[in-house]
Each structure stands twice: as C-alpha cells, then as structure tokens.
Write a structure and sequence with these properties.
The protein has 350 residues and is mainly alpha-helical. The chain folds into two domains: 97 residues, lambda repressor-like DNA-binding domains (434 Repressor (Amino-terminal Domain), Orthogonal Bundle), CATH 1.10.260.40; 245 residues, Orthogonal Bundle (Fic-like fold). Helices cover 70% and strands 0% of the residues. GO terms for molecular function: ATP binding; DNA binding.
C-alpha cells in the first residue's frame, strides 16, 4: 500500500504537505503512511483514493490485506482457517444484501442488463449523428424540466446554427448552449477514464451556470435555499461542504458494489437532496447520473420534461427526501434507462 500512495502522489506532482492539507492531517502522517510506519484509517483511505485518483477498490484491498496480515501475525495456519470461514460468511452477507432490492427493481435491472448485452453486440452500428440527435433531445428535456420554453427545434437552432430565437430570453439561450457543452464535457471524462470527484462536479456546474450566474458558477452556495413546491429543506450553507465530503466518500465506497443504474440514481438523488448550489442543481444532478451510466456502458437516461413525467419525477424525489423511501425514485430512474435503451436499440436497428 505504501508504494501505491507514494507513486500516486509523485505522479500527481504533489508534495506530502499538499496531500496533508487536502486530507486535513499533519504532514508527518503522510510520510509515515508512505514508509509503512503508520496505517491510515478507513476514512483516510477513502479520501486518499479520491485525492490521489487511485482506484478505490485497489487501495482498499491493499489496506485490508495489511490489516489482516498484521492481526494474524505468526498464527499463519489459524489465520488461513479464519479467512476461509470469513469468506464463507461474507459471501452470504453479499447475497443477502443483493436480495434487499425489491422484486420490481430487480426485475427491471435484469431487463436493463439483457438490453445492454444486446447493445454491446451492436456497438458497430453506433453513429455520431444518432448520438448528436439524442444528446440534443436530452438538453431540450433537461432544460424543459426546469422551465425553459425553447422547443426542440429552437434548441437545435440555438446550439447547432448559432441563431437567436425571437421572444426567448438570453438565459434560455445560454441554458441550451451550456447544457450541450456540459454533455460534451462528461463524454470527455468518460472517454479519458477520469474518476468522478469534487473537481469534476464543480466543473460540470460551472458550465451549467456560465454566463447566467457567473459569481456562483462552480461554487457551493453560501445562503439558505428552499425548493419550490417541495417540503424538503436542504442543509444550512455552513453544512454543505461537510455534506459534500460525505457524498464523495459514499461514492468511493459504493461505486464497485452497487448496480450501475442504482449507483447513478443514488448519486442523482443524494446530490439534489443536498442542493449544494444556488441554482442548476437538477441539471447538474442529471448530468452526474448520466456520466456514471455512460462510464458503465449504458445510454443517457433522458427524463422527459412534459407535465406528467415531470410530476412523477418530482414526486419520486419528494418521497426519497422526506419519507426516506428511495424505492419509487430508483424504480423511476431504472424505468427511464430501460426505455432509453429500448429506443436506442430500435434506432440503430436490432
């Protein structure tokens, strides 16, 4: 583990002092981690994985291995027997946790996985023009959810023709342009294999609000907000940074455990519940969700902005935020992804 930490830090051209500042600990501890004289806590391992952009699973396995070997010491034979018993019990626990998903959600996820297998065999039929058209629809629908009145055709004219639509506000024009650029940005992240972290989130949000509220673009809110039409009260502004630390820690610990569609839906719901920005939370949350889906080989889950779909979306979110019941929201997102996969396959011809 010590080699992993030192090599990753040097690859990022960071000093031990800089890593210590980001981690909020004494510089001497970083040197001890790298020399093997001190072991980081589980929480510190999670933060180090994010800061140094080390694969969380790789680093956690190395950390757990060293803890196990330390505890076993010279009792090698007993240690091997104990690990065999532990392996059996852990496999049972994993099986139990998987069955915590409802029958309805499990059924949709199985359908999604079947559709993805078909899609994986049809990748040769992918087309830039098809992707461009679907991304345009996504920009149109995501903005429509938030009250943008540009039609699909007008959105196309603004983005692809550079035209100004009479009777539409400058903000609506910028929302279309900015969202399309944000889609391009998450596709770049996906293609480069970048790990999702705070820097990337703030960059996505910066694109969404660029030229609209420039002083708040890419920055956490500094005032209390209320969500129109919702009884959910987001955390106080002085708690936002802490909540976001927890958000990224949760992601690092769960990204290799959860089904990608469940992970994407959870990251969407958790972000919009914290509501870390003064504006643009919905669009940013949906972009984060779709970044995770694209990284895992799925297609963009495009939530429609018409009244019925918008109300179903808001009601499912409200249930997750105020009743601690995420089932409706997970089912809603899974159904949207299933329909998006079916449509994509029908377009490319299967």
């Amino acid at each position: 583990m010590k080699e992993l930490l030192k090599q990753a830090r040097e690859n990022k051209h960071l000093k031990t002092r800089e890593v210590a500042q980001l981690l909020g600990i004494d510089q001497a501890l970083i040197s001890k981690f790298e020399s093997g004289n001190r072991k980081p806590t589980r929480e510190q391992v999670t933060k180090l994985a994010s800061i140094l952009e080390i694969d969380y699973e790789t680093l956690m396995v190395a950390w757990l291995k060293e803890k196990i070997l330390y505890e076993i010491g010279d009792d090698t034979n007993l240690g091997i027997k104990a690990m065999k018993v532990a392996e059996s019990e852990m496999r049972y626990e994993v099986a139990v946790k998987r069955h915590n998903l409802s029958a309805s959600l499990t059924a949709i996820l199985n359908e999604i996985d079947s559709l993805k297998k078909i899609l994986d065999q049809k990748r040769a039929f992918d087309s830039f023009r098809i992707a461009q058209a679907l991304e345009l629809e996504y920009t149109f629908e995501s903005n429509r959810i938030e009250g943008n009145t540009l039609t699909l055709r007008e959105t196309d004219l603004v983005i692809n023709e550079g035209l100004t639509v009479s009777g539409k506000s400058m903000r609506e024009h910028l929302e279309a342009i900015n969202h399309q650029e944000a889609i391009g940005y998450i596709k770049q992240l996906m293609e480069r294999g970048f790990s999702f972290n705070e820097r990337e989130l703030l960059s996505i949000h910066n694109l969404i609000l660029r030229g609209i509220i420039p002083e708040d673009a890419g920055r956490y809110r500094r005032v209390q907000v209320m969500i129109k039409g919702s009884s959910h009260m987001p955390p106080q502004p002085n708690l936002v940074a802490k909540e976001m630390d927890g958000y990224f820690l949760w992601y690092e610990s769960q990204k290799s455990k959860l089904h990608p569609v469940v992970l994407a839906a959870e990251m969407h719901e958790r972000l919009v519940t914290i509501h870390p920005f003064i504006d643009g939370n919905g669009r940013t949350s949906r972009l984060v969700m779709n970044l995770i889906l694209l990284q895992n080989g799925y297609v963009i889950a495009n939530i429609k902005g018409d009244y019925d779909n918008r109300m179903n979306y808001y009601n499912a979110l409200e249930s997750a935020q105020t009743k601690s019941n995420k089932e409706d929201f997970l089912l809603f997102i899974a159904q949207i992804e299933k329909e998006s996969l079916e449509r994509y396959l029908s377009i490319i011809g299967t």
